[in-house]
Amino acid sequence: MESESEARPSVLVLAGDAETASDVAGAIPSAEATAAAAADVSPSRSPDDGDTDVGRADVVVVVDAEGLDSVRGQSRACRVVALVDDPTGATATDPLVDAVATTRAELDATVRWLAARGDADRRHDEPARTPSRIEQLNAEMTRLASVRSTEEAHQTAIDVASEVFPRYHCVVGVRDEEWVEPTAASAEVAVEDCDRVRVGRGSAGAAIEDGEPVIESRSNDESPYDSVLSIPVGSDTVFQLATDEDGFDAGDRRLAALLASHVEETLDRIRVDEALRTEHEHLLALFSNIPDPAVAYDYVDGEPVVYRVNEAFEATFGYDAETVVGESIDDYVIPDETTAVQEVAEINTRLQRGESVRREAARKTADGARHFIVHVVPVRLDEDNGSGYAIYTDVTEQREREAKLREQNERLDEFASIVSHDLRNPLSVAEGYVDLASETGETAHLATAGEALGRIDELVGDLLSLARQGQSVSDTESVSLAAIGREAWQSVDTPRADLVVANDVALTADPARTRELLENMFRNSVEHGQPADDETGSPTEECAGDRLTVRIGGLGSETADGDGEGFFVEDDGCGLPEEAHRVFESGFTTNEEGTGLGLAISERIAEAHGWEVHAVAGESGGARFEFRTS
């Protein structure tokens, strides 16, 4: 009598490397398994040569494409099994492959079955053992694991049933509203020749309606079958066996039910796969077509690595998908500021904990830094995870509009304050003296009222000018500081003051508004640089000298043409007031006759040009105002 080891089939495992082949060989306990690297397999020879490994094996197991290629062209009488993760891949679907296994447990069962089927071709003289039908069914189940469509599942079920129940006719039917329509049948009968039945009628219709197996015995001469076994597969499919023999035993019913359960699992898997695929396609369409930039990422070693971006991201940030996919998104969109880096570190920590993050932040784009509402959502909330989506909603223009609105509101408040205070006082004076003149008939009072009305006119003019200065300038040209300064000087009443041009500089500016700026600066120097005595009108002892000198010139070099850094206006008068930090405030003045708006207007014009203005002490003790270009 042969020993157990002698009765076990001979299996050769082939892989690209010997270590992998050896590892798989150890997982086939039912066989005498040996392993070899694909490169070490002997060339094609007749099995009679006795030195060809493939020729001596009952079953060859290939693990990869290299293992399969080593079998090509070999003289062999053995079966080939592919052990793969993907039953639809190139290795699994190659014509050389007789069976597919996706797990090592499936591999052992498949090897036993194929070895038994190939007993007629074995090199041994002992009688072959006929495999049981349950072994046949288990070995054939791997075929269902590879199907990807409902139609393919129905046909594969028929193919498996034909192996396990070779004497029976097999049919698969599917419910279509009130009918059960045949969709697949054994090779000896065409599907078109199979009758459809109403739900609830016949064994197929009853099985669909009741969800229970039905055996129907037929004694009429119209049917070619004496007995039909119908087993429901889920709620809308039925599997049938038909025979012209005495009927079905318990083994038939048990195996048919087992096959039906495998088919049901396969159909459920296909439905889930199709649902997931449809959902994925919908999500991908949404991701691709949303107007905001979007990124899909996976965390790798704590870094959010991009695996997909949409077209809006490419347009906004200036990087195509090929550039950023596989890279950390933080390396491309995060500004270099320390605060931004710290902010991103916090976001990454929260996301990996499964928290959703929504905040406003600056990000680098193709057009420079812009403000976004960054909404980042992990795939799984409230648990550690490594995947998610980031959506960037650009709010730069909205923030600019809000800032402009705040500025306008502040200006309205400023105007309201001036109107309620500075305009009301001279208006009250004018009204009082007009009433007094009316009551007394003395027209001298009207002169005082006229002075008050003149101050009102001056205030209104300055308010209108101030209102115009908040806008940016667009019509600019190269302007000579010296030329426009002399023009502005001619427009200001300067009886005891002289203008000195220290040097010239070319400014890129709006000529009209720059002239208005200089007029206000000159007027401020004349009005505040040499306070006059109320009685004599002559300069007081506070400030030495009969005349005031006002100098203008370019910053950088004041003895030659300026270097383009900006310009200055300086006088040698009494200097800045103690509250020098308030000189640009609307309404602030140290002269009772002044409106307090001149320097505020000049500052607004400077800001519209992008210039910064600073008040500092002059070299001779007067006031100096520097306008620096950015």
Compile the SSE list and pairings.
Layout: H1 4-7, E1 10-15, H2 18-25, E2 32-37, H3 53-56, E3 59-62, H4 65-69, E4 79-83, E5 99-101, H5 104-117, H6 133-145, H7 150-164, E6 169-176, E7 179-185, E8 197-198, H8 202-210, E9 214-217, E10 227-233, E11 237-243, H9 250-289, E12 294-300, E13 303-309, H10 311-317, H11 321-324, H12 330-333, H13 338-352, E14 357-365, E15 368-378, E16 387-394, H14 396-440, H15 444-468, E17 477-480, H16 481-490, E18 497-501, E19 506-509, H17 511-529, E20 548-554, E21 566-571, H18 598-609, E22 611-617, E23 623-629
Parallel strand pairs: 1-2, 1-3, 3-4, 4-5, 18-20
Antiparallel strand pairs: 6-7, 6-11, 7-8, 9-10, 10-11, 12-13, 12-16, 14-15, 15-16, 17-19, 20-21, 21-23, 22-23
Helix pairs in contact: 5-6, 6-7, 6-9, 7-9, 14-15, 16-17, 17-18
Molecular structure report:
This protein has 630 residues and is α+β, with helices and mostly antiparallel strands. The protein folds into five domains: 4-135, Rossmann fold, CATH 3.40.50; 150-271, Beta-Lactamase (2-Layer Sandwich); 291-394, 2-Layer Sandwich (Beta-Lactamase), CATH 3.30.450.20; 400-468, Helix Hairpins, CATH 1.10.287; 477-629, Heat Shock Protein 90 (2-Layer Sandwich). It contains 18 helices and 23 strands. The protein has a six-stranded antiparallel sheet with strand order 8-7-6-11-10-9, with helices on both faces. A hairpin with a 2-residue loop joins strand 12 (294-300) and strand 13. The longest helix is centred in the middle third of the chain and has 45 residues, at 396-440. The radius of gyration is 48 Å and the shape is elongated. The model is unreliable at 1-6, 44-52, 120-126, 534-541 and 559-563 (pLDDT under 50).
